[in-house]
Amino acid sequence: MTTNEMTSGLISDTTALTPVMRQYFAAKEQYPDCLMFCRIGDFYELFYEDAVTASRELQLTLTARDKEKKQPMCGVPYHAAEGYFQRLLRKGYRIAVCEQIEDPKLTKTIVRREVTRVLTPGTAVDPALGAEQSNYLASVVVLDKCVGLALLDLSTGEFRATEFSGWAEAADELGRVRPVELLYAQGGLVGLNGRSSDLLPTHRGKTAMNGAPLSSGTEEEAASVGLDGIRTKTAVEDWVFTADYAVPLLRNHLRVQSLDGMGLGGHEAAAVAAGALLHYMRATKQGGLEHVDGLRFYERSTCLELDAVSVRNLELVEPLFSGESAQTTLFYTLDACCTPMGKRLLRATLLRPSSQLVEIEGRLDAVGEAVADLRKREELRRSMSGVLDLERLLGRVALDSAGPREVMALAGTLGCLPGILAAVNSFKAELWRKLGAGLDAMEDLHELIVKTIAEEPPVSLADGGVIRAGVDAELDELRELSRSGRQALVAIEERERQRTGIGSLKVRFNSVFGYYLEVTKANAKAVPADYERKQTLVNAERFTTPELKEYETKILTAQERSGEIERRLFAELRRQLLDAAKRMRETARRVAEIDMLGCFAHLAALRGWVRPSVDASGVLEFLGARHPVVERRMEESGTGRFVPNSVHLDAGLVDPTHRDKTAMNGAPGDLRPGGPAVLLITGPNMGGKSTYLRQTALLVVMAQCGCFVPAERMRLGLVDRIYTRIGASDNVARGRSTFMVEMTETAAILNTATARSLVLLDEMGRGTATYDGLSLAWATVEHLHDRIGARTLFATHYHELTLLAERLSRLMNLRVTVKETASGIVFLHTVEAGAASKSYGIEVARLAGLPAKVISRAREVLKVHERAETQQVREAAPATPQLQMTMFTPLSQRIVDRLGEVDVDGLTPREALNLLAELQRELKG
Ligand SMILES: Nc1ncnc2c1ncn2[C@@H]1O[C@H](COP(=O)(O)OP(=O)(O)OP(=O)(O)O)[C@@H](O)[C@H]1O
C-alpha cells in the first residue's frame, strides 16, 4: 500500500490501520505534495514513499513497521529536526510538520496530531543563508496580457513587485533573480496574447507527489522561459490570483486604503501577484509577517538591462560554472562592504545598474567626494564596522526566532547609527545629504533595548535572567526571594552536616524530585530519624525534610512566576520593536546605500580607479582600461601585470543634453566624432580577445552602478542593455546543441538590441560548418552595423570577416598582438588597429603539446586552404547594400567631411558665411 494509493482513495478500508496511522493518512491527504514529518514521541517519523525519499536524501536508515517490510519508515530525533528540514528545503522539497497537539501525559487515549507548519524553500528562512544572498519567494500571474511578478525575501522583509508586457521578459527577470520557489496559478498562465501560455501548463502544474521538486518540463520550455534554475514551482488555486481576492488581502496586510502610494496604482497584475504571495504565506501557516510592511513597485526600464545570459557570461555575481571559485566574479572583486546589507545591495545593484544619468552622476559625485577625503572616508567605514544584519535581525524578531542575545545584537547595531549619521553628515554631496537627512538614528529603540535586557543575557529566554534588574519591581522581588531561598539551602546543608556529622552530605536538585539531601550509602546509618526517604540509588540515599519542602515550594514558585514575568516583558519588547519595523527597514536600506558608496570610494582610492564621465551620447571610450577581476587575480597570484587597453566606439547618437561635453574628464580633444560603431577583433587563441570584450562590459556595468573604473580615462554614453554571446556555454549538459543555443541568443540580440545597446559577440558561428558559420557571422555583423547601429565588439577567428572593413564604413578591425620569437610566439595582450595576418591556431596547438608530425602536416594543409578560401570569399560575398550615409554617419562626421571637402582659398566671404549657416542649420537639425 502506498501513500498515493491511500490518498487517491484506492484503499478505502482504513479500519485495519493503527490509530496513529489513521491520523497520519488524514494529514497526508491534506498535504499530498509535502514530505510528512509526523511527531511520535521523541521522533519525527516518515512513512512509505516519503520515508524512501527522505532516507535517500538524508542518508537515514530505512526500517519498516511490519515484518514484510511493506510499510517503510524512517525518523529523525525531534531536537535535531530543523537541520534535516533545512537540508531537504535546500534540495527543493516541501515539508509538512504534523505535531502532537496535546500533552501525552494529560491524555488517556491517543494524542491528537495536526499539521502545524508547512515549510517550503521560499517560506522557511535558511539559517545558513549567506549574508549577500537573498531567499526569494516569487509569484507570477498573467492578467490582461500583462505579466505581474512579486518577490519576497522573508529573511529581510524585502517585498517588491513589477510588471512586464511579455512572458519572455518576466522569465528573464526570474532567471536573473533566481528565486528559490515560484508560485503560479494552477490553471497555467492563461491570457498572454490571447492564448493559453503552455509554459507552465496544468499537467505539470502540481508539485509532484512526495514533495519532490519538479522537473521543469521539456528542454525547449526550460530554455525559453529561463525557469530551469528554480527548483520548486508551486501551483496555487486559480481563485487566489484574482483581483477581487488578492488586492483586498494585500491592502489589509499593508494596512492601506489604496496601493497607489506604493507605486502600484494601475498595476493590477503586480498587486495580484503580491496578494497571492501573501495568501500563500498565510496558507502555509507562516506567522511573523510583521516585518513585511511595505511593497515597492520597481521598473526595469530605469535600469541597464542585463539578460540572464549576460549576467552569467560576465560572471557578475556567480562563477560561470557552478562549483568554481567565486573569486572570478565581479561581485567578489568589488565587495569591500562593511555590512551585510551593503553586500546585498551591491549584489542587487550589479544585477540592475542604473540607466538614469541623474542617479549615476549623483552616486559618482558622492563617491568622488569620499575618494578625495581619506580621513572622512575612513571615519565613515569605521562607523559601520560593528554593524550587523539589521534586516535579518529584525526578520528574526518578527519570526519570533530571536533570543535575548539577538535582541542585544540588534541594540549593538542601533548603537552604531549615530556615528554613521555623523560621518555621513560630514560630506557635502547631494546624495550624502539626502541619505543623512533621512537616516533615523533610532536612539529611542536603542535605549529601550539596553534598558530592558540584561547586559550579558543568556542564550535562551527560558534560562532566566534576561530582563535587567530595576525594570520590574515584582520581578526583582521574586529574584531576591529565590536568591535568599537558595542561600537558606546552603545554610541548611552546612547545619545538617554539623548535626549528622556526615561531611559529604549535600543538598541537591533535580526536576523530578525537587530539592533533596543526598547521603552516601556508607553514611546511611548516621541519618537522623526525621529524614524522610525519597529514593535509593546504588551508592547513595536521597531524603527530604518538611523544612526543605517548604523552601522548595518558595523557590520554585518564585522562579516560575519570574519566568512568566520575563516572558511577558520580552514579548512586550518584541512588540515595540516590531512597531518600529518600518523605521528600521528604512534605516537599513539607507545604511546599505551608504555602505556601498563607501565601498566604491574605498576601492577607487585603494586601486587608483577613475571617475567615468557619463553622458547621453553614443560614445564608449576607454583609455588604459583593465579587467578588474583578471587584474586583481594576476596581482594576487603574482603572475605578471595586466596589459591595459583602449576602446573607442561611437554609436553616433546625438546627446541633446550634453552637447558641450566633448572631452573626457575635462581634457579637450579626446572625442573623435563618428568613431566606429563595430569593432572586429581578430588574433590568436589565448591572445586576450574574450578578456577585452568582457572588460568593456564590466566597466560599463561598474560605471552605471556609480562606481569608479580601472582605466586611465573613460567616457560613456549611457547604455540601455548589454548583450553577450560569449563562448560555448555548458548548455550541452541540458541536451541542447551548442549551435542552437548560440543562434537563439543571437536571434534575441538582433531582434531586441537598440542603438543604445552594447553588443558583445565572441566567436559566433563556430558550432557549425565553416561556411555556414562564416556566412551567418558576416550577415550578423552587417545587420548590427547597418540596421541597429549598436556599439558592438565582435571577436572572431574567421579572418575572412576582416574584409568587411572595406565595405562597412563604421567597422574597424582590431587585433590582439603577438610577438614571434625563435622559440615560438609570445602573447603581448595589446589590442591595436588592423586585422590579424595569421591565426596562430597551429602555434597555440604546438604550445599545448600536439605531436610535431601533426603540427607540420597541419601547416601544409593550412597553406592550401588559405589560398583557396580568401579568393572565394572575395568573389562570393554578396555586395553590401550601399549605406545610407546620412542615416548612419554621425552628424559630427558629416560636418567634418563637409569641411574637409571645402576649398577654403576659393571661397568668397559670403560663400563662407553661407556654408557656416548651412552647417549650423544641420547641427540644429
Ligand atoms: N590584457 C591582458 N593582460 C594580461 N593578460 C591577459 C590580458 N588579456 C588576456 N590575458 C590573459 O590571457 C589569457 C587568454 O585570454 P582570453 O581568454 O581573453 O583569450 P582569447 O583570445 O579570447 O582566446 P580564445 O580565442 O582561445 O578564446 C587569459 O588567461 C588572460 O588572463
Automatic annotation (TrEMBL):
GO terms for biological process: mismatch repair. Residues 548-590 form a coiled coil. CDD domains: ABC_MutS1. Pfam families: MutS_I (PF01624), MutS_II (PF05188), MutS_III (PF05192), MutS_IV (PF05190), MutS_V (PF00488). HAMAP family: MutS (MF_00096). Gene3D superfamilies: 1.10.1420.10, DNA repair protein MutS, domain I (3.40.1170.10), MutS, connector domain (3.30.420.110), P-loop containing nucleotide triphosphate hydrolases (3.40.50.300). The keyword DNA-binding applies. Transmembrane segments: none annotated. This is DNA mismatch repair protein MutS. SUPFAM superfamilies: DNA repair protein MutS, domain I (SSF55271), DNA repair protein MutS, domain II (SSF53150), DNA repair protein MutS, domain III (SSF48334), P-loop containing nucleoside triphosphate hydrolases (SSF52540). The gene is mutS. Residues 757-773 form the DNA mismatch repair proteins mutS family domain. Belongs to the DNA mismatch repair MutS family. This protein is involved in the repair of mismatches in DNA. It is possible that it carries out the mismatch recognition step. This protein has a weak ATPase activity. GO terms for molecular function: ATP binding; ATP-dependent DNA damage sensor activity; damaged DNA binding; mismatched DNA binding. Keywords: ATP-binding, Coiled coil, DNA damage, DNA repair, DNA-binding, Nucleotide-binding. ATP binds at residues 683-690.
